[in-house]
Amino acid sequence: MAPAAAARRAAARRLLAAAAGRLPQSASSRWSLGAAALLGVALTVCSAPEPLRIRFIGNAAFELADGRTTLMLDFPYESGTGGFMTYDGASVRPTGRVVAVFTHSHRDHFDRDLLLERGWPVVGPVELTSRLPADRVLAAADTVTVGEFHIVPLAERHADLEHYSYLITWRGRRIYDSGDAMDPTRLESMPELDVALVGEGLLCWMAQQRGARVPAREVMAFHFFTGESRRCLGSRALEQGESIALPPAL
Ligand SMILES: [Zn+2]
Question: How much distance in Å is there from the Cα of 215 to the middle of ligand 1?
Fold first, then answer.
């Protein structure tokens, strides 16, 4: 072995021995090395927690991903339907365990054939999930848990369809998705949210009401009838493909 390599190995052994220093003297060197490696992994994980990334795809579609689990909100939908946003399906490649969460079955929120091609399990109103194979549907419940995500469906009026808005919690963060809800009462009464994803039609209607406010640190508009956001109530809008990162609170 070259002298430099031998010196590096000796230094590495001293570091590992120091890291395993809390073990009893009698611990075998293999056990010490394993403990030191585990300690290193734990320190790495603790020092750099993965954030939640919220990415805008188009219309009412967002991708919520933490590296292990991805929730697809109102995706796939029928690209360009009704004159709304198109998207490139090939650019949507969620990773880890993927679950699609739908607010309702209008085609600018839901495309059954594209969904079946993707093969993802689904959370959504019974009116929508009853059109899917039973083994693709996650049981309807007060709260559906997927990885670190807890998904609470909230029945809201929209046209003549069964429709859910959602409160999604993730590592102490609270994210609200209005879908196409038409009534702001529940949203306005929410305890402070981290991010509220709110349809622009609802936001701009609220903006005309005296004292209306969305109780969220970040209000993100979607579903732009004119092709771009009017930024009602001081809301922000992401470009298609753009994302924000939310660090865990817990
Ligand atoms: Zn709709």
Answer: 23
User: Could you give the domains of the chain?
Assistant: 3-47 (no CATH), 52-246 (3.60.15.10)
Cα of 110 from ligand 1 centre, angstroms? 10
CB of 138 within 8 A of CB of 122?
Answer: yes
What contacts 91, CB < 8 A, 6 or more positions away?
Answer: 241
By three-state DSSP, how is residue 245 classified? strand
Residues with CB under 5 A from ligand 1 (ion): 106, 180
| Interval 28-42: pLDDT, tens | 445 455 555 555 555
Give per-residue pLDDT as tens, 147-161: 999 999 999 999 989
Q: How far is the CA of 103 from the centre of ligand 1 (A)?
A: 9
Residue 75 Cα to ligand 1 midpoint, Å, equals 13
Its pTM stands at: 0.81
Burial 74-109 (b: 16+ CB within 10 A, else e): bbbbbbeeeebbebeeeebebeeebbbbbbbbbebb
Q: How far is the CA of 147 from the centre of ligand 1 (A)?
A: 28
Helix then strand then coil, in percent of the chain rounded to 5, is: 30, 25, 45
